[in-house]
Amino acid sequence: MLDVSERRVCRVLGQHRSTQRKVPCGADDEEALTEDIVALAKQYGRYGYRRVTALLHAAGWSVNHKRVERIWRREGLKVPQKQSKRGRLWLNDGSCIRLRPAYPGHVWAYDFVEARTHDGRKFRILTIIDEASRECLALVVARQLRHEDVLAALAELFIDRGPPAHIRSDNGSEFIATAVQNGSAKWA
């Protein structure tokens, strides 16, 4: 031990002196409350700590919203940014629905890109990529593309590389995605 006063040590460290005297003690129910908060945050993915506090009150917990917020931050819980309905990663029950690619050939995605030539005439490009490796599998360029063209491009890729586990599209109005899905299911 150094022969230095508590007051001087606290001043050098920039701490208040009361932090040296008060022994922090957690509540007896801290672990159970933390487990319930984490479980509710997993179950309701879009709820913040205030709504989770209300759910805890409904479940019988007598807990302050400040305490829930402190545990929420300590556990690193966050409400994800709101996403558009088309690209959201969860259903209304909070579960995740978007499939993440695990290996090359697991998930393929296809979509259209549109551009114009120097004289103003438009053309479309069908792009098919492997989401895991980010490899461009096919580019089909034409003035007009129909779902038969998409099926032909996918059939050629299925023959060359084999069918993927999943195919993702944006289900846009530019082609009939159900016809493509029904057609690609025949080769899988």
Characteristics:
188 residues, alpha+beta, Nucleotidyltransferase, domain 5, 2 domains, four-stranded mixed sheet, 38% helix, 16% strand
Q: What's the arrangement of secondary structure elements?
A:
Elements: H1 6-13, H2 18-21, H3 30-43, H4 49-58, H5 65-74, E1 107-116, E2 122-130, E3 135-142, H6 147-161, E4 166-169, H7 177-187
Parallel strand pairs: 1-4
Antiparallel strand pairs: 1-2, 2-3
Question: Could you characterize what this model shows?
Answer:
The protein has 188 residues and is an alpha+beta fold. The chain has two domains: 6-74; 107-187, 2-Layer Sandwich (Nucleotidyltransferase, domain 5), CATH 3.30.420.10. The chain has helices at residues 6-13, 18-21, 30-43, 49-58, 65-74, 147-161, 177-187, and strands spanning 107-116, 122-130, 135-142, 166-169. Strands 3-2-1-4 form a four-stranded mixed beta sheet, with helices on one face. β2 (122-130) and β3 form a beta hairpin. α3 crosses α4 (49-58) and α6 packs parallel to α7. The radius of gyration is 28 Å and the shape is elongated. The mean pLDDT is 81.
